[in-house]
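Chain entry —
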Amino acid sequence: MNTFEIRTYGRTELAQLYCPNLCPESAYRKLKHWIELYPGLCDDLAAVGTSSHSRTYTSAQVSLIAAALGEP
């Protein structure tokens, strides 16, 4: 069994952990949608430095996402 590690992930890399059966682009869109739906998560991510141009999630951002959505 694989254990999820809190570390820096590429945004598509993390998305594919959450949605392994989707193509990379679809997985990213799905993860982005879930993040937008979760109350306060966008604001929390913005507070630690996320922007729409970021290609990676830092370990702090990954921690927030995993806390909100659960580990992949």
Remarks:
- The longest helix spans residues 24-37.
- The chain has one domain: 9-69.
- Strands lie at 9-10, 56-57.
